[in-house]
Write a structure and sequence with these properties.
The complex is a heterodimer of chains A (83) and B (401).
Chain A (H helix, E strand, L loop, with lengths): L4 H12 L23 H15 L5 H4 L5 H14 L1
Helix pairs in contact in A: 1-4
Chain B lengths: L7 H12 L9 E6 L2 E4 L2 E5 L12 H14 L14 H14 L3 E5 L2 H12 L5 E5 L4 H10 L2 E5 L4 H11 L7 E6 L11 H11 L2 E5 L14 H5 L7 E5 L9 E5 L12 H4 L6 H16 L1 H20 L12 E6 L2 H13 L2 E2 L1 E3 L9 E6 L6 H23 L1
The chains are: A mainly alpha (83), B alpha/beta (401).
């Protein structure tokens, strides 16, 4: 399965919508927790949507080192390719 | 840099709640009158949010045992279980509990929080993977973090979601796989579909740790918990429980039939690097275990009270968090401001329940959470229902109009 970073970013933005209650404009540099002002549980719930979408597991340990959407794009790509 | 600045947003939230009508952010109980009544802000109040499921906090045998232990053994052990903190009474409690639970061995921890920390970090290591339910208690999340294991979160009460994740990992690594479930989830009061989770266990293989914090002493014919109720105790490898709910004291435990289980005592820091429970705590806990063994009618009474409250709320048309009868009876409220206002109105009318707000709740929900006690009288339950009718159902209807 080949997935470009741009495709993944676009998908993440769609999945982020219900969690982005303050309608912050999203970019690769957006800090998922700090810029969107959402709590740690919401971040985990968002990531669960990502996991289901791509049929991958993103362990919470990996998540603790994932700050921006760009970081998350890289995690998703690595996990999809590793699968 | 001021390290405290990162918490400044909490102050804003507190001020918002005070504006919504709270007297104080944290309730202060002036005097406890009984397991179910207290004086709060000078008013006699029915306690409907204390997790005191068996209403055992004033049982004569427990209080007598606690007083005797204070007289005979002093105020504290001043030491760890692995140094000077193991008294004969600590072992006696472990034996009494093992008998109650029908397990080979029990390890007592100083608090329920530490029981989860100690058990999870004792079982899982850096090469293992822990699969935890999304709605797990904070002590489970913290135990997982301390363990250093890979942490995979699966959808709440969803055995298929767990199976999918186990299947994905099947060809990965050599480490063990620990799945953690709870007997009753504390916020909504729902139980896990244990049989379906066990089917997944048989298919994919994992070690099961079941946290019976809210179900130990409460569910099952003999009070052994949700696994006894479901007839699946043989499939549960390790149990965690607490003394701060059905036992009415403080402390926690792990239990298992595993022949090496007692080695956890020398392998987990939450057990070794803390003082053991005080003599009076141990004595009251042991007396309470005996009370629970001798009085199955407490569980009948709790079931009866839970059913009455559950049905009373349902008749009011409240949005129930859980559709089976459970000693945790929680209802959804639309938004944070009205939840705070309703909670405050209930308190002023003389009923204390739990105010539960995100992020401590599933799905960002706002809840009014009751926990039922075997010690509640019919009049207490009637009062709770009546006030929820006046405060919650009435306001929701008005809002809808």
């Amino acid at each position: 399965m080949t997935t470009s970073d741009a495709d993944i970013f676009e998908e993440l933005c769609t999945l982020m919508q219900p969690f982005n209650t303050e309608k912050v404009e999203l970019s690769l540099e957006t800090d998922i927790s700090a810029d969107l002002n959402i709590d740690s549980v919401s971040v985990m719930d968002f990531v669960m949507e990502v996991e289901d979408k791509y049929d991958i597991d993103i362990p919470l340990n990996v998540l603790s080192e994932t700050r921006t959407l760009k970081d998350l794009v890289a995690v998703v790509r690595a996990r999809v390719e590793g699968a | 840099m001021d390290l405290m600045q990162k918490h400044a947003h909490l102050l804003e939230r507190q001020q918002k709640m005070l504006q919504a009508g709270l007297d104080e952010v944290v309730v202060c109980i002036d005097r406890i009158l009984s397991p179910t009544h207290a004086i709060i802000n000078g008013r006699e109040t029915v306690l409907a949010g204390t997790n005191n499921y068996m209403g055992i906090t004033f049982a004569e045998s427990c209080i007598e045992a606690g007083k005797r232990a204070l007289d005979d053994f002093g105020t504290g052990t001043t030491g760890s279980r692995v140094a000077n903190g193991t008294y004969a009474m600590h072992r006696e409690l472990e034996e009494e509990l093992a008998k109650f639970l029908n397990r080979r061995s029990v390890i007592v921890f100083t608090t329920g929080y530490q029981a989860n920390l100690g058990m999870i970090a004792g079982l899982a290591g850096a090469n293992d993977t822990v699969y935890l339910d999304a709605d797990s208690h904070a002590s489970i999340y913290d135990g997982c973090a301390v363990s250093g294991a890979q942490l995979v979160r699966f959808r709440h009460n969803d055995p298929d979601n767990l199976a999918k994740r186990l299947a994905r990992a099947n060809d990965e690594g050599e480490g063990g796989r620990l799945v953690i479930l709870e007997g009753i989830y504390s916020m909504y009061g729902d139980r896990p579909p244990l049989k379906e989770f066990i089917d997944v266990k048989r298919e994919y293989g994992y070690t099961l740790l079941l946290d019976e914090a809210h179900s130990f002493g409460v569910l099952g014919e003999n009070g052994r918990g949700v696994a006894e109720e479901a007839g699946l105790e043989d499939e549960v490898d390790f149990i965690v429980g607490t003394f701060s709910k059905s036992i009415g004291s403080i402390g926690g435990f792990g239990a298992s039939d595993h022949p090496l289980f007692d080695l956890i005592r020398y392998a987990t820091r939450a057990y070794m690097f803390t003082a053991s429970p005080s003599p009076s705590t141990i004595a009251t806990s042991t007396a309470a275990v005996r009370e629970l063994a001798q009085h199955p009618e407490f569980r009948d009474r709790l079931r009866y009270n839970s059913k009455r409250l559950h049905e009373g709320f349902k008749d009011l048309g409240l949005k129930m968090c859980c559709d089976v009868v459970s000693p945790v009876v929680a209802v959804h409220v639309e938004d944070e401001a009205s939840t705070v206002a309703m909670w405050n109105a209930l308190l002023q009318e003389g009923v204390y329940v739990n105010l539960a707000l995100p992020p401590g709740t599933p799905n960002n929900s706002c809840l009014l959470r009751c926990s039922v006690s075997a010690a509640h009288s019919d009049a207490d339950i009637d009062k709770i229902i009546e006030l929820f009718g006046n405060v919650v159902a009435h306001r929701e209807t008005r809002a809808a109009e």
